[in-house]
Every structure is written in C-alpha cells, then in structure tokens.
Amino acid sequence: MKLQSVEEFFYKRETVEKYNDDKIIKLNWECPDVLFSFRGVYAIGVSIYYRQLFVDNVKTDIMVKDEKGATRQRLYSDKFLSENYPQFSDVNDLLEIKGFLEHYYDIGNIIPTWPGANVNRGMAHCYDIPNVYYKRVL
Question: How far apart are CA 10 and CA 60, in angstroms?
C-alpha cells in the first residue's frame, strides 16, 4: 500500500504489522515491530516546524490553546495528531514525509524482535532499552 498523503495515513488506521500479516507469518516472526513509526517521525516534524506550540521546558508535551485556556497534550498522541494534522501544512507538504508515506507499509519497515519486546516492554515504560526491561521482569 502506498499512501499519498498525511490525511490518508490518519484515515486508514491500519498498522504496518497487520497489513503485512501474511508475510510475517511466512517469515515465522513471532514478535514483529515497526522500525520507523510514521506518527513518531511526523511528531518530530511538528516539533520542528511548530515550535511555538511547545512548553519551553518540556519537549514531549505541547500547549494546546482552546476556549478553556491552555492544556498539556502529548505531542505524539494519536488523538491529538489525527484531530490536528490539517493545521500542520508545512509538515504535511514536505517531500520527505510524502516519500516516507509511499514506503511506510513495506515489509522493509518491520523487524523481528525478541519475545516480550512489543507490548510488555511498552507497558513497562522501557521502550527501546531491553536491558532495563529484562531487569524489571526477571
């Protein structure tokens, strides 16, 4: 699947792993994970092009101004990005973003990982530090 726009990404809502499920089964990968998350890369673009939205001392939160005042919001929140991506045209129109979307669903964007790497690791708040995850679990 080749996505043509940021809008299409937020509309499709299918994971790369699910889209490539047949290939993952053939490869006998038990714990696949996406190498590069579009939402994460997109959030980096938003943080660069729309710095005025951010709280000065907090890099992962942004201040969202609405009729109730300003509230904290996680930048990479799917809810925030899917509701607000139309406001980020500077990022949406980047050639690099469009090129990434064209190849986002390729099997090359998936890697096999160790058992426990995906769901358990994230729930333990260790993410990409497996030695910390295993110290907590073992």
Answer: 20
Q: Which amino acid is at 115?
A: P
Give the closest residue to 11 by CA, choosing from 62, 78, 77, 74.
78
Q: pLDDT tens, 59-98?
A: 556 666 555 655 666 777 788 889 989 999 999 999 999 9
Non-local (6+) Cβ contacts of 38 within 8 A are 9, 100, 101, 104
Q: At what angle do helices 38-49 and 95-103 cross, to 10 degrees?
A: 170
* Farthest CA pair distance, the chain: 52
- What percentage of the chain carries pLDDT values higher than 90? 33
